[in-house]
Every structure is written in C-alpha cells, then in structure tokens.
Amino acid sequence: MASIFISCVVLATAVFCGRSAAEEVAPGPAVSRRLPAITPKATCADWMKWIPPRSDPAIVMQVVSRHYLELERNFIRLMELNSALTRDHLYLMCMDNVSVHFFESSMNIRCIPLTAFDFPSHAEIWVLRARVVSCLVEAGQDVIMSDADALWLDDPFKDFNLPRVIDSSVVASRGKFPKPLGLEWGATMCMGFVLFRATGRGVVGEFLEVMDALVHKNKDDQVSVNLAAETLGIVWDQESDMRYVESDSFGFGTIDTLVDENNQPFSVTLLPHNAYTRVCDETPISNKTVVAHCWAPKTADSKTGWMVQSKLWFSDNETR
C-alpha cells in the first residue's frame, strides 16, 4: 500500500488568532462506538454515517496514513489554534490500522478505516476523494479539503464569508497545474486547500459529476477539477486578479451553463496567493498568511523540514 497523506489549519515570532493552551489541547467528546468499515461497495449513505460530530460551518476531509501521523497532528494543532474548527470537524479516512488506532486512542478522533481498499498508487486516492466529496455535498455538507501540510495560520472563514466569495460554490487556493490551463487562465484551482459548498447543491452536484467522470479518466483530481470548469465553459472575470504567485486579491469565474434555482450561475473564487501561499520562496510567510502550503518534495521529512525552519512545527505530546 502506498504511503500517503492527502486531504480532496504562526510565524517565527508570533501566533495569530490563538486560543489558550488549555483550550487548544482539550480533547473532544469520547470517540463514538466504531462504525462498520467502509468497503469499495460503500454507498453515499454509508459515507454519510461517518459525518463527524460537528459539521457547522464545514467539515474538513483528509486521507492519512501511518507515515504522516505527526504531520497530521501538527495540522490539527494549528487548525484548532487559529480557527473556530476543532478535531470534531474532521472527516478523516485512515489507510491502515495503525492510523485508526493512533487517532482514536491518542487524539480521540474517529477515523474511517480504508483497509478494505487496494491503493496501488495515488491515482486511486484521487478517485476516492472525488467520490466522497460528492456524497458529502449531496448530504448538504460544506467540505474543506486541506492537505496536512497546508497549515492554517488564521481562520479562512474570514475570507470565505466575504461578499461575492460567500456566493461561490468552489473557493480554492491557487496553483499552475494543469500547465496549459495555468498558462491560459493565469492560475488554476489547487486541490491542496479548497472549499466545496453545498449551497445550491443541485448545480454543485452537476459540476462534481463532471469532475468525477474526469477523475476516473485522468486519475488526478486537480487536473479534473480544472478540466471540469473548462469543459463546462467557465469564464474568468478579467477585472479580477487572475495572476498566480503575484496575486494579492481574489479571482472570480462563472459557469453560465450551470444555474441554480434562483437563476444564479455556478461561481468559483480563487484565493489570493499572498494569503494562501504555495510558492513560499517567492511569497514568504507573513502576518497576512492565512494558509501556508509551501511546496516541498513529497516525503514526510521534507515537509517537516520547512515547518521546523519556519517555526511552525508543534507536534509533541502536548497536542494529544
């Protein structure tokens, strides 16, 4: 089985929007009785049974494995410290029994066992993520997909709830992949930190249906979310900020072929790179940073390295 952490949350001298240490380390309610393991034949109803104890204003969906437990624990500490969300908002999926035991016994977080699945590569994970987010949105849940190395240094809901942004069905950090669309548009949607809203879920469901079909074909959810937008005819507002690394404001796009019951088109917001940062060498972490998702090679040690260097590594016994 591939070693992986995926999820389709402080600066060197200061912590922003922090809670007290007592609040931060307080465990949530006892993990409920174990629900049945999910199998490849699981229905949306099965996935919905695992919706976490708290789901307002959103749930945070992630896939984790035993090689990335400390990274995930660091993520949870910063998410709880710097936002209104807690571990009780996490919709965790565990690829192995070691992870299930760790989160349930050490952190009081229930984790969906995926041991019945065969994941020979990352591609199968991308397919699963797309399927599950579709089920959760269909159930009326707003879903944040946040990689464990996308560290929350401030509360993203202060941006999610801004005028115009609050009406968007997809609110995403920025990337440049797939490259042809990055060159054409200026920036693309990055699946390392993205919000899918259930508001107007009929049209959101249509978008996710197209995306899901493309994920099965391309075996990559970031390629597919952007190809879905292109396929459905997204038009980006050229008066909005469509740059990638240089962006310091929002980018907006609409898909007029998808219209909700209020005759409003499906809309997408790209978050500014100066606050939701991917290329940290060019956009250093600052007091404007909301989510730092600094690029690093895909190993636990490499990802831990930049966090330690930036003094954003807090995975220790106090976080249990």
CA-based shape: globular
Average of pLDDT: 86
Number of E strands:
12
By helix and strand content, what is the structural category? alpha/beta
What's the CATH first level?
A: Alpha Beta
- Rg (CA only): 18 Å
The biggest beta sheet is recorded as:
9 strands, mixed
The helix/strand order is HHEHEHEHEEHEHEHHEEEEEH
Helix content: 25-40%
Query: Architecture, CATH level 2?
Result: Alpha-Beta Complex
By CATH, the superfamily comes out as Spore Coat Polysaccharide Biosynthesis Protein SpsA, Chain A
The count of helical stretches stands at 10
End-to-end CA span = 27 Å
Query: Strand share of the residues?
Result: 15-25%
Q: Give the spatial strand order of the biggest sheet.
A: 3-2-1-4-7-6-10-9-8
CATH topology: Spore Coat Polysaccharide Biosynthesis Protein SpsA, Chain A
